[in-house]
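Protocol step 4 of 6: structure prediction from sequence.
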Amino acid sequence: MSITRRLMLATAATIALAAPAFAQAYPAKPVTVVVPFAPGGTTDIIMRHVAAKVQDAFGQPMIVENKGGAGGAIGANFTKNAPADGYSLGVGTVSTTATVPSIDPKAGYNPTTDFTPIINMAATPNVIAVHPSFPGKDYKSFIDELKKNPDKYAYASSGTGGIGHLQTELFKMAAGVKMTHIPYKGAGPALNDVVAGQVPIIFDNMPSAIPHIRAGKLIPIAVAAPERLKDFPNVPTFKELGMEQVNRPAYYGVLGPKGLPKDVVDKVNAAVKKTLADPDVKKKIEDTGSIILANSPEEFAKQIEAEFATYKKVVTDNNIKPE
């Protein structure tokens, strides 16, 4: 055997032996997780609670990076286009995995084929809330005021095609009312302007709205939840109000670009699941009004498929277009 042939075989054997070692080394450095919205919204809050403690189970820190805009599509595309090595992940929400790609053919991705689902961390109720200056302080007076003044009021959302946008549009059609849509670059800025009285109405995730509700800076009108919330027993669900189609929760899951290796998926899933079981993390997330899910990659994939199909049908049936 020639010297060249021996060197080639030796090199191939070295690579073969080294490959498992490299795979086992993950994560060998910090992992960035892109939140596709501005700081301060529910997605940001929940991911930061997990990221703050995950190093104990993961071996490396998770660094949260906010890339808001386009209803979450900018951050989603960043994750889609990241290397499939596990060092750049993202947070998938109903907005990014269902409503935005349903309403916007130029979103740039297909949520069922362009990502690797890893784990759905939590789900949370959504709430229609108003600034205290709004004349209606409960559901009946809220509806009465909107119907008496059909062109007067506006609502804020995290952006065109986001869950706050499409759920409010669903609500408008179900309730027979009108409101003008004012999109923002993220749930945080939208919520801030409603709390400040710049816009009177918002359909928001309960975790980010709840501190302002408790402080009396927002008044809850109705919630999208399986049942009335124990902290707000006088606030009806949309199901009670005869609007089952509006009674949809939000979710927050970790995903990566298409083609993530199974061992990477399994390690991230196990670390996040263990972190969600930590009593301190669990309490902080549940205190926001959210429910811990901590499911499998396969279960999360099915949720994405179902939600995308549901909102795509809603957009088509109601002829909703991007602004």
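Step 5 (inspection) to follow. The radius of gyration is 22 Å.
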